[in-house]
Design a protein that fits this description.
Order of helices and strands: HHEEEHEHHHHEEHHEHEEH
Mean pLDDT: 86
Oligomer: single chain
Bound molecules: zinc ion
Helix content: 25-40%
Structural class: alpha+beta
Length: 291
């Protein structure tokens, strides 16, 4: 079982169940498979569990979790059955575990991949990723549209985009997860798991400051990647910090460095300034990040 199989099975399930719009109706997916979903009182810190009763599979989700988390939990549980991967967390899914990367079993990560593919279907995110810029503002809009977490949306966006992008999740200052876009991979730039966050990165300063708001930084490609080809890129980063898990999420936009023609210098400078004004304006609702 690898990632590609998990993704292919998720796409097949969506197709078989006739789901073509977002937010994906996870209840419909569950009942298509003959599973029953119940929202119930579960212990704090328990996201959900699956019980089998009289040959009927019932997924219980914690009614006190946010609706986004409940959606993800249901799909994660569905994944265990569709992928035929026994649960490695016992019967109960601890809620602080989903979508995290420290100390997870590969089977559990595959179930998350399946869940993400169902929540943010490729055919729908792909054109949106071409159309929109990779910014925290747009990720928040897409999170609303798909009813999925920002990290889920950011990963899918980076996978689907034709631009030079990456999404990096670090815990306690160490990179745990990174997704680079196809274009960046083809430019032979990668970001290795297990490396410390670059010192001058927005994520590193967010972690140091302990402040959960948005942080941004201009860095160089080589700060993030030990690939020689990274030297051809500058890197603009927006980062967020989540104190309870000491998790940072960075969205990275790599810009290939090139000489600008002298004659257009003035115009380019003006255009840059206009862009900057637009981006500074772009954080409505940031004070309520979704997790
Ligand atoms: Zn699981």
């Amino acid at each position: 079982m690898d990632e590609n199989i998990a993704v292919a099975r998720a796409r097949k399930l969506l197709k078989d169940a006739g789901i073509t719009t977002v937010p994906v109706d996870v209840e419909t997916l569950a009942s298509f498979l003959g599973f029953q979903v119940s929202r119930t009182e579960l212990a704090d810190g328990e996201a959900g569990c699956t019980v089998e009763r009289r040959r009927k599979i019932c997924i219980w989700v914690n009614q006190n979790d946010s609706p986004l988390r409940q959606r993800f939990t249901i799909l994660h549980e569905i994944a265990h059955h569709v992928l035929e991967l026994p649960s490695r967390h016992g019967e109960k899914v601890p809620s602080d575990e989903l979508e995290r990367f420290t100390g997870r079993h590969p089977e559990e990560v595959l179930c998350d991949i399946f869940a993400a593919e169902c929540l943010v279907p490729w055919v729908i995110i792909q054109p949106l990723a071409e159309e929109k810029d990779f910014t925290l503002e747009h990720l928040a809009e897409l999170a609303e549209l798909f009813q999925a977490s920002r990290s889920c949306i950011a990963s899918r966006f980076a996978q689907a985009s034709g631009a030079h992008l990456a999404f990096v999740v670090a815990e306690e200052g160490v990179v745990k997860y990174s997704i680079v876009s196809k274009a960046l991979r083809e430019a032979r730039v990668w970001i290795t798991k297990g490396i410390p966050l670059p010192q001058d990165s927005a994520a590193a300063s967010a972690l140091k400051s302990g402040i959960s708001g948005p942080h941004e930084a201009d860095t160089e490609g080589l700060d993030w990647s030990n690939s020689d080809d990274a030297s051809r890129f500058a890197c603009y980063e927006q980062a967020t910090y989540h104190a309870p898990t000491k998790q940072t999420q960075s969205i990275l936009i790599f810009e290939e460095l090139e000489q600008r023609p002298v004659s257009s210098g003035y115009r380019s400078a003006r255009d840059d300034r206009d862009d900057l004004l637009e981006e500074i304006d772009g954080y409505p609702g940031w004070s309520k990040p979704r997790y």
